[in-house]
């Protein structure tokens, strides 16, 4: 307390000057319309700038929460789209009545990517969800833009994904315009490009055509983007095109993924095994 009094006594002339200046400015602003309007406009401008900066900082610090919310919403939308597309497929024949359980067989779990490889011949991805969250080996993995890979190993809280950028990974893929089905397989070079093999050269293939997952797989819902046709070549000595796709998923900037669970996969696999044993 004594130090405060001593400070005031030592600086009394300066403090009186500041007080009188403040009082003078207040009286000018109060009694002069022009300077009053100028003061309030200027103060409002800087207050608005300060609030905008504060909001920007606050939004930046909450980006992780915002992205997580968007990823959860996308998972819900993926499930809805998959259900609607299977409820009555566009190419279904007249009189076809789909089973409601079949249409709703896919569910989605949001996961965050914690490690991602793109520069190896056999790339894998690590996510922050495991068996404790219902994840199991064999489940498909997609992003907001397209196919990512398939679950290979799981621990309680983490899973390893075999990326589509892996020499042993293939996915059944359909060209939208021609309805021709082939297999997307990575040649091990550019993480933005993938080959589409086993497409007959006796059908028409269009550059820029979309390539999506076909109905002929049990891991991914049909219609998930794989990529777009980048180039098409014909080898005279072969019966298939050499097609290169521009991948729909940007693996260098992969943050969130959706693990796809086929509720009826076990039933399908049991039938396949029974078929194999009776051959």
Automatic annotation (TrEMBL):
Keyword Translocase appears in the UniProt entry: no
Superkingdom, taxonomy of origin: Bacteria
BP GO annotations: regulation of cell shape
Transmembrane listed as a keyword: yes
Pfam families per the UniProt record, alphabetical: MreC
Annotated TM spans: 12-29
CC annotations in GO: plasma membrane
Residue ranges constituting the Rod shape-determining protein MreC beta-barrel core domain according to the UniProt record: 113-261
Gene3D superfamilies for this protein: Rod shape-determining protein MreC, domain 1, Rod shape-determining protein MreC, domain 2
Keywords: Cell shape, Membrane, Transmembrane, Transmembrane helix
Family: Belongs to the MreC family.
Record's protein name: Cell shape-determining protein MreC
Species for this entry: Dyadobacter helix
């Amino acid at each position: 307390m004594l130090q405060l009094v001593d400070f005031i006594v030592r600086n009394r002339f300066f403090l009186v000057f500041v007080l009188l200046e403040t009082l003078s400015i207040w009286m000018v602003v109060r009694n002069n319309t022009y300077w009053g309007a100028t003061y309030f406009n200027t103060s409002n401008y800087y207050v608005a700038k300060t609030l905008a900066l504060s909001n920007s900082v606050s939004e930046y610090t909450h980006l992780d929460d915002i992205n997580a919310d968007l990823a959860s919403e996308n998972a819900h939308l993926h499930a809805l789209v998959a259900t609607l597309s299977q409820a009555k497929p566009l190419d279904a024949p007249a009189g076809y009545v789909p089973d409601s359980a079949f249409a709703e067989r896919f569910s989605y779990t949001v996961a965050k990517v914690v490690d991602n490889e793109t520069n190896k011949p056999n790339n894998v991805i690590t996510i922050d969800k495991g068996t404790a969250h219902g994840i199991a080996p064999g489940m498909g993995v997609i992003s907001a833009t397209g196919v990512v890979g398939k679950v290979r190993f799981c621990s309680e809280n983490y899973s390893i994904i075999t990326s589509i950028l892996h020499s042993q990974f293939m996915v059944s893929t359909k060209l939208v315009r021609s309805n021709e089905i082939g297999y997307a397989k990575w040649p091990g070079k550019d993480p933005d490009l993938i080959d589409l093999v086993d497409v007959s050269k006796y059908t028409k293939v269009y550059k820029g055509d979309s390539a999506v997952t076909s109905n002929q797989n049990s891991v991914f819902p049909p219609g998930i983007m794989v990529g777009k046709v980048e180039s098409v070549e014909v080898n005279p000595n072969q019966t298939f095109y050499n097609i290169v796709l521009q991948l729909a998923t940007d693996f260098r900037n992969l943050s969130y993924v959706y693990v796809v669970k086929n509720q009826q996969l076990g039933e399908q696999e049991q039938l396949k095994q029974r078929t194999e044993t009776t051959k």
